[in-house]
Write a structure and sequence with these properties.
The protein is an all-alpha fold and 800 residues long. It is 67% helix and 2% strand. Residues 323-327 have low confidence and may be disordered.
Length: 800
């Protein structure tokens, strides 16, 4: 006679001993021994065989067993009994594992109807059903329903004795659902309870134990405790293999474990080297990328630009340990002209892809599907067009052009110009990049006016109306619009692009104007929606913005309602794009050769300027290419071409020797602005002969005389620039005299001689070179004459 109880004890021993490979043959032999006459025993064994096939992901075999089970139920006349309900529960769970969710839900509902009709009082089978149905809800995205079912299951198990394992299972499932609902702390609590219950229970081979271990691994991952996450994922992997072999769950857990290990390697390597992502990529280029180019593409080496720019926190300088979990690691961009890309682009990309998979202990970039294509080989036109829609920066000289430029999303423009260029011998990429570096002034004012209008309407007008109505949705929407518009206004007032939303507040830490805006907005968004302080906070933020508008001479209105400022800024924008051209355009007589010389000088100076290490950290002017190029071009367009050519040679020679002329210039200024600090490095600067210093002082005297004439003739305009005399120098103020002395000291003897001859020639012609420089400057700012610019500055002074 076949003894089913004795047989099932043997099955339990196989599971306890981890002899998973013997389970299927054992059950099949039992079915054969029981024979067709012992249907009750066959039903028990087929239910267990279904569970085995489900666990090892043999879904078709599970479904064949399910059909046999239902046939036996019918043959034994067990329809509607608790045994029928239990079998339906097992079948539904197998169907769920096979991804047949509608059929599984139907089977669960049938089992529930039977249990509720046949079972009285709390019963573990009903708790099991709630648990499994909750898992189906989880897999089909109905997380709130899933959590409600699991709580019912937990309530039932707590009313029953000897249900520690079932409680542990329920806590495991609840933990996973809470993670899905972003209720991380609650999920972590459930997972810890589950593992504790499993490990206290006799025999730790319960099939759900690995799920609890993996859940705790996920808990620690969310908490950033990666070492513990790795430990519990490893335990879960071993437990799954011991119970079921390498099934689908084993593979999922293995992938999670590898992800945690990879993240730990990246964090440990990054911490050991103390590098940012940008510095890491630059070092990777210098040590791996550039040697590859030198070996395989020597004829293109002086044409390929290299660097890292685009999407990713490392391009903004915002990366940290958390950034290493995706799209992070050594990598760089190579930018080619259209012609070069057609010639070598695909081959160069293949060589880039073949670079070492690990370097200095750093794994290469762990790119996701969303982050693919951020590094590698790019055609310059395509790179800029991908972010901005334009291969080259568009014009902004008509209302239509201003609106078109203004429609380019600010984060995309920032992607095009962030990061760092490591090398650009051809200069084409840098030239394009610099043209996109900032909004042209009319576009900046256009977007600023839009932001001011939104602030006025959302914050000053509609939020209080929503408050009166008691409309929470309206108030929330108004505050969201107000905060975004205020942040953008802050970026525009700082002449910078606003980044992607998640970095918006982080980027505000670099503000040099309206510095208080970040903390004011943070206080606002943390205030309760209907708190009486919200409206005064909005008005204070608006006042902060209005005050800076006045400082930047963009408004003369004292009106606290920002729509008035919106109108003033729009008027200023319209003046810039509609102002008639000067009758004598100072650029009209500039030759093409001079323009090219000046362009090369400005770009070379800008690249050197980026490398200047300021005592107090990076200066805001190092991020303001628009102002930089206006000031430098205004000066150099007054120079004669031989002087320009000689100075360009000075800059190039400095680059070849690793000597930064811009750094030298600022260092020499410190003789007057910070004399004590200057003494510490004075001996490292190239010595100047007494004869040279005498010549420099003679030239300075002439130029300062011209400067004094301009201060008398255009006093309001002159007030917007530097003070004149070195006697007015402080640590925070550098006069025009000291600035010029620093510049002249960096020129080669040949350049200084040519510069001196140019100044003397101008003096003989009774020509004021400072006046010429100012004429170019006001032209670039949209004024038709020095007189007009001086009047505009005077009007602003009177309004303040």
């Amino acid at each position: 006679m076949f003894e089913i109880n004795e047989f099932m004890d043997g099955l339990d021993r196989l599971y306890q001993e981890g002899r998973i490979d013997r389970v299927e043959p054992y059950l099949l032999s039992g079915l054969e021994k029981a024979g067709p006459q012992n249907k009750e025993a066959a039903l028990v064994m087929l239910n267990d065989l279904m569970g085995y096939y489900r666990a090892v992901s043999r879904h078709e075999d599970m479904q064949r067993c399910a059909e046999q089970v239902l046939e036996l139920i019918s043959a034994l006349g067990l329809e509607g009994t608790v045994n029928h309900g239990t079998s339906l529960l097992n079948i539904a769970t197998g169907l769920r594992a096979a991804g047949k969710y509608p059929q599984a839900e139907t089977a669960y509902q049938q089992a529930q109807q039977i249990f509720e009709a046949r079972l009285s009082g709390p019963d573990y089978r009903l708790a099991t059903l709630h648990n499994n149905l909750a898992l189906l809800y989880t897999q089909t995205g109905r997380l709130e329903d899933a959590k409600a079912r699991m709580l019912k299951a937990l309530q039932l198990t707590e009313q029953l004795e000897d249900m520690e394992t079932e409680k542990a299972i329920t806590h495991t499932n609840l933990g996973n659902v809470c993670f899905g609902l972003h209720q991380t702390e609650e999920g972590a609590d459930h997972m810890k309870k589950a593992v504790s219950l499993f490990e206290k229970a006799p025999g730790r081979r319960d099939p759900h134990y690995p799920a609890a271990l993996a859940g705790l691994g996920e808990t620690y991952f969310h908490q950033g405790r990666l070492e513990l996450s790795q430990e519990f994922y490893q335990k879960a992997l071993l437990a799954i293999e011991a119970l079921y072999g390498r099934n689908d769950d084993w593979e999922t857990t293995r992938q999670n474990l590898e992800m945690v290990k990879d993240l730990l390697r990246r964090k440990d390597a990054l911490a050991a080297k103390g590098l940012t992502g940008l510095a890491l990529s630059k070092a990777y280029y210098e040590e791996v990328g550039r040697p590859m180019l030198e070996k395989k593409y020597p004829q293109y080496l002086d044409r390929i630009a290299a660097g890292l720019a685009g999407e990713g926190s490392e391009c903004l300088g915002f990366d940290d340990a958390h950034s290493t979990d995706h799209d992070f690691g050594p990598g760089f961009c190579l930018w080619l002209t259209r012609e070069d890309y057609a010639a070598i682009g695909p081959a160069l990309q293949a060589d880039y892809d073949a670079l070492p998979a690990e370097w200095r202990g750093f794994p290469v970039r762990n790119s996701t599907a969303e982050g693919a294509g951020r590094v590698g080989v790019f055609e310059i036109d395509s790179f800029f067009r991908n972010f901005t829609g334009y291969a080259k920066a568009p014009s902004a000289d008509t209302p239509e052009a201003v609106a078109a430029f203004g429609r380019i999303p600010s984060p995309m423009l920032l992607n095009a110009v962030n990061g760092e260029v490591f090398a650009d011998p051809l200069g084409e990429f840098t030239k394009r990049r610099n043209a996109f570096a900032q909004y042209p002034e009319p576009v900046r004012l256009y977007r600023l006016a839009q932001a001011l209008h939104t602030m006025a309407q959302a914050g000053q007008y509609n939020y209080p109306r929503g408050r009166k109505r008691g409309d929470a949705g309206m108030m929330f929407s108004c505050l969201a619009e107000f905060v975004q518009a205020a942040a953008e206004a802050g970026y525009l007032l700082n002449h910078s692009y606003m980044p992607f939303y998640k970095w918006r507040f982080r980027g505000m830490e670099a503000f040099t104007r309206v510095k208080e805006l970040k903390s004011m907005l943070e206080e606002l968004i943390q205030s309760p929606l209907q708190d009486p302080s919200v409206q005064p906070q909005i008005e204070a933020i608006c006042d902060c913005i209005r005050a800076e508008l006045s400082v930047q001479r963009l408004t003369d209105s004292k009106d606290s309602f920002l729509d008035a400022q919106h109108a003033a800024v729009l008027r200023r924008m319209e003046q810039l794009i509609s102002a008639p051209k000067q009758e004598e355009d100072p650029m009209a007589e500039i030759s093409t050769s001079k323009k090219e010389l000046v362009e090369n000088i400005v770009l070379t100076e800008w690249n050197q300027f980026q490398k200047v290490q300021n005592e107090g950290g990076r200066a805001s002017c190092q991020d303001d290419f628009s102002t930089f190029q206006i000031m430098r071009k205004s000066q150099y367009y007054t120079w004669e071409e031989p002087v320009l050519a000689s100075y360009l040679d000075d800059l190039k020679e400095g680059d070849s020797l690793g000597w930064n002329l811009i750094t030298e210039k600022y260092a020499r200024m410190m003789r007057h602005t910070s004399p004590n600090l200057y003494k510490e490095f004075e001996d490292r600067l190239p010595p100047l002969s007494p004869q040279r210093e005498k010549l420099q002082e003679q030239l300075i005297s002439i130029v300062m005389g011209w400067t004094a004439e301009m201060q008398q003739q255009y006093p309001a305009l002159s007030k917007t620039g530097r003070s004149r005399s070195s006697l007015e120098d402080t640590q925070w103020n550098t006069s025009s005299e000291t600035y010029l002395r620093g510049e002249l000291s960096t020129y080669s003897d040949a350049t200084l001689k040519l510069y001196g001859q140019m100044v003397l020639n101008a003096l003989r012609r009774e020509e004021n070179l400072v006046q010429n420089t100012l004429s170019f400057m006001v032209h670039f700012y949209g004024y038709k004459s020095l007189e007009e610019a001086d009047k505009a500055c005077m009007a602003q002074d009177l309004s303040l």
